[in-house]
Description:
alpha+beta; Glutaredoxin; 3 helices
Amino acid sequence: MLRLILYTGDGCHLCEQAKSLLYPLLTAKGWQLTEVNIQDNDSLKERYGVRIPVVALSDGREKGWPFTAAQIARMLES
């Protein structure tokens, strides 16, 4: 299964906007979204604390907010 990680946090309204944008795109392309809450992990909080939401692929590529569906679609295809 192709998987896209979404780094999120508690009460993150931008993360909710990102999920609304991502779910239709990922469903259409056959990808699964895995949400990772950074709040319980100090290293993730240090890395992503001021940048969430951030999407990441298994090859290490990342895109921080703001992003569009078109940008993420290009990321998934390359």
